[in-house]
Amino acid sequence: MFPRRPLLLLCLLLFIPRAASQAAAPPNILWLTSEDNGPQLGCYGDTYAKTPHLDALAARSLRYNKAWSNAPVCAPARTTIISGRFPTGDGSEHMRSLVPLPAEAQLYPQLLRASGYYCTNNSKEDYNLEKPDGTWDESSAKAHYNKRPAGQPFFAVFNTTISHESQIRTPGHQLVHDPAAAPIPPYHPDTPEVRHDWAQYYDKLTEMDQEVGRRLKELEDAGLAESTIVFYYGDHGAGMPRSKRWPYNSGLQVPLIVYFPPQYAHLAPQGYQQGGATDRLVSFVDLAPTLLSLIGKEAPSFLQGRAFAGTHTQPAPEFLHGFRGRMDERYDLVRSVTDGRFVYLRHYMPHLPYGQHLGYMFQMPTARVWRDLAIAGKLNEDQRHFWEPKPVEELYDLQSDRWEVNNLASEPNQQARLDTLRKAVEDQARKIRDLGFIPEAERLRISGNQQSPRDAFKTDAAYPFEAVFTLASQASRYTNPDPAPFLTALGHEHPLMRYWGVLGLQMRGVTGVQAGHDQLLALLRDVSPSVRIAAASALGQYGSPADLPACLDLLVKEADPTQSSQPAAMEALNGLDALDDKALPVKDRIAALPKRDPKTPKRLQEYVVRLHEKIAADLGTPPPSGDEKEIEK
């Protein structure tokens, strides 16, 4: 027995340096990201796709089948990633907004850098949160891990824009994929334009795949492949209408592929195997805590996701959450959730159409031909849905209806499922104190540019969340005609209650607005710009002809971003646009308004311009001059 002990001791001594070396060598982490594409890849079973490099990566990695981006458009999706928080709770959910970070929060590169990592981003940021100094070691088109000091572990992001929506519609593209074989969703009309756009989308995925292949080869050539954990993911669903910008599964599901070299197999999720797949629910809010877990750090309490790999892996969530706020120049308020099989959407502004006119989206041929066929009455039931009034709730079974066209919300045998997912949306809103129920102009009035909306509205005095959320939920159930709760709210001391009181009456049309007519007129002088604008919009749409001049006058004044605010101008211009020909008496005044506020961040200035372009086209006034062209995304 004793003679064996020296041999055992020798083996232990030989093992200790290797174990210590492993412990002392944290992994490098490489993120390869692409824009505006869902899981339309060969490794996800898409036979139309040609993506050999990603297919090869998946063959030695773990593929996530149920990953969501939380937001169906780039800026709020990327805000979720960089903050590890739900933008709906921080007031950063609107497309191309820019608000301060909550006081207690830090961005994940700050946390990685504090742990000794060299962090680079190449190169898109597009955050809706103001980035603190020192967030990245370098964030530019030249950022690269090869610039790090010798021996320092790195975290690096390389983002490709090849598959972005703007590239799908680039004219003159010579198709490689056969448009006749393109898989057209049943909600899109089957036209040459639509087939061309989908084929071009798949062509761009092939080009994106080649770029990913180049980055992987670069890592291999540098001798870093076996010391680097590799993530590949898309930033939200396909850049086609009704996928991008909409929190269905088609707008939120992304490909996510993660490779763990053998020496870091201990950090991989349980059950990891090369070429494997998992149905664990993951979303972008989980990426930041997962990064920290991979380097042995526990996530601080301000991160709201769950680590799905590493030394601090947490149990999978029961649900994934999605959202839709302002999309470019158009306001909306939608929340969605999935349990992995069913997808539920709750519309809190169902009076706004699905197919609102977004200047950027309507550059896509598919969007234009789809709208034109809707106007001509040449669409079938599945295709018309996008151009019809919204229901309050939607429920889809992805197992039998992957395109989400058969709404089960009214089916008697689905009411238990509907109740469960509705409660999940409501619980999430309460958990994060969802700020989406505060109109953007009112947020800015209270928080200004220096304070985070999260901090400005953290008390019940500033934001009586439960009362506002309850009223908004009642208001949006417009099939209930009773105006009583909203009439009471018009006299409430808090502007947010007055705001939802106005919307509750507006959603009930002529009957609702007539019931609160005199109070709505009084609210044209409200302290809150959002309340004033909402009252003018409601009276302009459903009031008497005698009300119209005062409503138009107020909306035109609020539509001047240099005198009110950028969000107030957008809210007012949306109100004017909804009035259609009723706005003709003030068309010259609208055309003469300033289109940009120089005090507004550049990333926000384009949206007022787009609204002016739409209103000018509808009212027959000259469009904005050449110096007012929109900023390309």
Short description:
This protein is an alpha/beta fold and 633 residues long. The chain is built from 24 helices and 14 strands.
Kindly describe this structure.
The structure is a single chain. The chain is of the alpha/beta class and 633 residues long. Helices cover 39% and strands 10% of the residues. The chain has 24 helices and 14 strands. The strands form three sheets. It has an eight-stranded mixed β-sheet, with helices on both faces. It has a four-stranded antiparallel β-sheet with strand order 11-12-13-14, covered by helices on one side. Helix 17 crosses helix 18 and helix 21 packs antiparallel against helix 22. The longest helix has 30 residues. The protein is globular, with a radius of gyration of 26 Å. The termini are far apart. The N terminus and C terminus are likely disordered.
Largest sheet strand order: 5-4-6-1-7-8-2-9
What is the distance, rounded to the nearest whole angstrom, between the alpha carbons of the first and last residues? 73 Å
Average pLDDT over all residues: 95
Beta-strand content bin: 5-15%
Instruction: Please give the largest β-sheet.
Output: 8 strands, mixed
- Uncertain segments are 1-22, 627-633
Alpha plus pi helix count: 24
**Overall geometry:** globular
Q: Strand tally, please?
A: 14
The Rg value, from CA coordinates, equals: 26 Å
Helix content: 25-40%
Structural class: alpha/beta
Structural topology:
Blueprint: H1 4-24, E1 28-34, H2 52-59, E2 62-64, E3 67-68, H3 74-83, H4 87-90, H5 108-114, E4 118-122, E5 138-139, E6 154-160, H6 165-168, H7 192-221, E7 228-234, H8 249-252, E8 256-259, E9 276-278, E10 282-283, H9 287-294, E11 320-324, E12 334-338, E13 342-347, H10 365-375, H11 381-384, E14 393-397, H12 415-432, H13 440-447, H14 453-456, H15 465-476, H16 484-489, H17 495-506, H18 509-515, H19 517-522, H20 529-542, H21 548-558, H22 566-578, H23 587-591, H24 602-619
Parallel strand pairs: 1-6, 1-7, 2-9, 3-10, 4-5, 4-6
Antiparallel strand pairs: 2-8, 7-8, 11-12, 12-13, 13-14
Helix pairs in contact: 13-22, 15-17, 17-18, 17-20, 18-20, 20-21, 20-22, 21-22, 22-24
